[in-house]
């Protein structure tokens, strides 16, 4: 395995943290999704830094970035693109939409209709867009960072299960600690520093790191551990929907990326345990409507981890 460029990874993380104070763990999870070639869902109340994190990550990479503001009247063609007829040539020409970028911020994804949300499915799953019988590739790399408010907020839609399953990681940023918030009020990094933030990694360096993630070793005992976790969710009495094979693959890939961020070329059990909630909780569905939601599925995942012995 080629030598891991730890200083470059540390510089990338520090660059993002320079505008998102006190949220090192959230930044690291975002980088895990980026290096793992996955997509990221940021769910939290308005105003805690979801968009700042997404923009800072994109600005830290020398790549093409597009932001899509999702609204109830947005159409799939507003995301994917549309074929336009040119009278002078007598032909239709496909005009690419904003999804054609390396990093796409889908802001407030649950404020648009399920029909428009589903327009992203092929792009997120296969890194391509099919229009009028023609397939157009996306990336590499290609990453969707979506933000959403809690579904209890007015004007929001549930993300369907097949859409949620496309996100490698879902994370909540949370409110800052008192001293951190005081610093934010004094310095206003999201307004002042963010616009001045420059890239610290090239597109080629990012693609090389994503390739390195695939070479990180996962022991058979850890694979068995992940399968046991997945099986436990599928037969759990409180869940109507367990972890899909796609979810188990995402957990393996995320654990590899997390190990790479630590400078290791092998996965340890703690990598898996630490990522189970952000990778799994949004993919599970409770049987009882009253118990549905991220917090309830998170509790189920934590109990499963307590009941299963981790490899030594």
Element layout with pairings:
Elements: H1 6-17, H2 24-35, E1 40-43, H3 50-60, E2 61-62, E3 65-69, H4 76-80, E4 81-86, E5 91-96, E6 103-107, H5 114-117, H6 121-126, E7 128-131, E8 134-137, E9 143-148, H7 161-164, E10 169-171, H8 178-187, H9 189-192, E11 201-202, H10 203-213, H11 220-234, E12 239-241, H12 245-261, H13 269-280, E13 285-286, H14 294-307
Parallel strand pairs: 1-9, 1-10, 2-11, 3-6, 6-9
Antiparallel strand pairs: 4-5, 7-8, 12-13
Helix pairs in contact: 2-12, 11-12, 12-13, 13-14
Can you describe what's shown?
The chain has 312 residues and is of the alpha/beta class. It has two domains: 1-215, P-loop containing nucleotide triphosphate hydrolases (Rossmann fold); 216-312, Helicase, Ruva Protein, domain 3. The chain contains 14 helices and 13 strands. It has helices at residues 6-17, 24-35, 50-60, 76-80, 114-117, 121-126, 161-164, 178-187, 189-192, 203-213, 220-234, 245-261, 269-280, 294-307, and strands at residues 40-43, 61-62, 65-69, 81-86, 91-96, 103-107, 128-131, 134-137, 143-148, 169-171, 201-202, 239-241, 285-286. The strands form five sheets. A five-stranded parallel beta sheet has the order 3-6-9-1-10. A hairpin with a 4-residue loop joins strand 4 (81-86) and strand 5. Helix 11 (220-234) crosses helix 12 and helix 12 crosses helix 13. The longest helix has 17 residues, at 245-261. It is globular, with a radius of gyration of 20 Å. The model has no long low-confidence stretch (mean pLDDT 88).
């Amino acid at each position: 395995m080629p030598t891991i460029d730890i200083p470059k990874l540390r510089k990338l993380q520090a660059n993002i943290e320079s505008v998102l104070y006190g949220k090192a763990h959230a930044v690291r999870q975002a980088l895990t999704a980026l290096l793992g070639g996955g997509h990221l869902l940021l769910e939290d109340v308005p105003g805690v830094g979801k968009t700042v994190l997404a923009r800072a990550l994109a600005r830290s990479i020398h790549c093409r970035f597009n932001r899509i503001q999702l609204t109830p009247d947005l159409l799939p063609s507003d995301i994917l693109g549309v074929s336009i007829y040119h009278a002078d040539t007598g032909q239709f020409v496909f005009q690419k939409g904003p999804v054609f970028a390396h990093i796409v911020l889908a802001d407030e994804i649950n404020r648009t209709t399920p029909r428009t949300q589903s327009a992203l499915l092929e792009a997120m799953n296969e890194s391509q867009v099919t229009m009028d019988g023609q397939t157009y590739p996306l990336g590499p790399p290609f990453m969707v960072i979506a933000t959403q408010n809690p579904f209890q907020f007015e004007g929001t839609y549930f993300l369907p299960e097949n859409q949620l399953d496309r996100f490698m990681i879902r994370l909540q940023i949370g409110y800052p600690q008192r001293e951190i918030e005081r610093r934010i009020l004094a310095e206003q990094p999201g307004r002042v520093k963010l616009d001045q933030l420059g890239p610290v990694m090239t597109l080629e360096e990012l693609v090389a790191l994503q390739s390195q993630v695939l070479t990180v070793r996962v022991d058979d005992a850890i694979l068995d551990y992940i399968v046991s976790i997945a099986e436990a969710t599928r037969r759990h009495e409180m869940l109507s929907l367990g972890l899909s094979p796609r979810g188990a693959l995402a957990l393996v890939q995320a654990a590899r990326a997390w190990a790479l961020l630590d400078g290791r070329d092998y996965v340890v059990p703690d990598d898996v345990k630490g990522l189970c909630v952000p990778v799994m909780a949004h993919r599970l569905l409770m049987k009882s409507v009253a118990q549905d939601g991220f917090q309830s599925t998170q509790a189920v995942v934590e109990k499963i981890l307590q009941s299963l012995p981790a490899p030594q």
